[in-house]
Amino acid sequence: MLKSIVLFFTLLCLCLVSLPLKAFSSTETVSGIGQYDENNVFAKILRKEIPATIIFESEHVLAFEDIHPIKPVHVLVIPKGKYRSILDFSEKATTEEISELIRALGTIAKMMKIAEEGFSIMTNSGHNGGQTVPHLHFHLLGGEKVAWEQSLRSNNTQIKEEQK
Ligand code: AMP
User: Fold this and answer.
1) Is a pLDDT exceeding 70 seen at residue 21?
2) For labelling alongside 138, which of 13, 22, 52, 56 has CA 20 to 30 A away?
C-alpha cells in the first residue's frame, strides 16, 4: 500500500515538472531525419485541427502565415505530403510534388507583392539548422531587407571575439 502511494506521488511530481518544460518545447530543435511525427503542429494545420491564416492552397502545397513573423511578410510554404525535412522530400517526393512546391514559392512571392523588391527563401534541417517543426517548410521572407549573410558574418565575428 505504502509502495503504491509513493509511486503515485513520484508520478505526480514527474508530471508537474514536465508541464512547464512542455510549454517551452516549441523552441527546441528537432531531427530532420527519422519517422514522420503525425502530431507535429503543421500536420495538425493540414488536418484543420488547429487554425492558420491560409495564403495559398493547391493539390500538394499549403502556405500560411508564420505565427511569429520575423519580417513584414513571413509565409510558411509546406508540402501536404508527410516529409520531415528537405532530406526526406528530396529523396522521396514525386516530381509533381517537387515542381508544384517550387512553382508555388514563386506564385506566393508575387501574390504577397514582394517579387519586385526581392525576398528570401529558407529551410532549416535538423539541430544545427535550427529546425523546430518536423514537417518540411520553407520560410518565404520579405517586405524589408533580409540580410542573412550580414547577420551570419556578424555572429561569426562575435563568436571569434568571444573565443579570443
Ligand atoms: P523552424 O524553426 O525553421 O522549424 O520554423 C518553424 C516555424 O513555425 C517558426 O517560425 C514558428 O514561428 C512557426 N510556427 C510554429 N507554430 C505555428 C503555428 N501554429 N502556425 C504558424 N506558424 C507556426
Assistant:
1) no
2) 22
Q: Which of 42, 26, 43, 135 is nearest to 87 (CA)?
A: 135
As for ligand 1, residues whose beta carbon falls within 6 Å of it are 41, 50, 52, 66-68, 76, 124, 130-133
Residue 68 falls in the annotated catalytic set: no
C-alpha cell at 36: 514522420
Residues 6+ apart with CB under 8 A from 63: 54, 55, 56, 57, 75, 76, 77, 78, 104, 108, 140
Report which residue type is found at 77.
V
Distance between CA atoms of residues 126 and 141, nearest Å: 20
pLDDT, tens digit (0-9, with 9 covering 90-100), for 24-50: 335 789 998 899 999 999 999 999 999
Q: Which three cell numbers stand for residue 139?
A: 520560410
* All three cell numbers of 148: 542573412
